[in-house]
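[job 4471] stage=fold_predict status=RUNNING
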Amino acid sequence: MFLGEIAMSEFSNWQGYLVCNQGDDYFISSPWGLNNKAVFGADSDYNTLALSLLQYMLSLGIKIDSLKSEDSIIDMSFLNIASGLEENTSTNQWSIFCSEEAMLGISNSSLTNFPKPENLNNVDEIRYNSLSEAWGKESAIENVSQGAYISAQQYSETLVSRINLLAQSGNDNIWPPRELNEQGDYYGSEIIRLSNTCKIESWTKLSAAGAPSEFSIRAPLLGGISTAYVSFNHGTKGVFLLVDDEEISPEIGDKGEIVVRRIYAQEGQMRYGTKVRIID
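[job 4471] inference complete, writing structure tokens
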């Protein structure tokens, strides 16, 4: 169900997107534009927008018992797993409404129009079309990775801990969680949630030729694949891809923010995960 637009409204930045609310209606938009319309960045789609808006609403203390969508383009299985919400008939049920542009809204009533963000960042049309075509090829059912294979079951089983930064706590903290330590001893059962802010310890950029096969279709268009080694306040460290939407070269000591974006597609299934964006 795609809806229309209303007059411009004041948006603020959130996880690399634009968010606003009008009463009990909450909206999120891509910050990128083409021909005066919001379009998706290099690693975003309706599902990353929806999860980011959910996280924004929860950060405001908005109570959401359940969530549904009338649009098949929204992967409710992914959203329910990533957010812990369920699709049911609760009296406090919220619905997702998609725009024809790279925008969507969440409301506990009904939506008929969308606010229009100002000053979208213009994208290069040729690069945008090339990346869209590349994602189409990557998402095809016949596209099978020639690198490390991760089954749909493996992906789903670890999604909650990866998306929500749930670390296992023992003598120190480990993310993602695992039962045993390097010596094969039981590590501990306490689970803590890491902050979504981190510090850049180092970073590197793989050339298109040196990128893993999962990224072989898009890597030439992106000029390679960038990763960052980061540390969290809890002492945990990890390696994350940098977001593809923003062409920023990080520096050691920069502050980063962990966000959810598309990672790659395999056998017709989009794989979502955490990436880091520079916020200094």
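[job 4471] summary: Residues 2-123 form one domain.
[job 4471] exit 0
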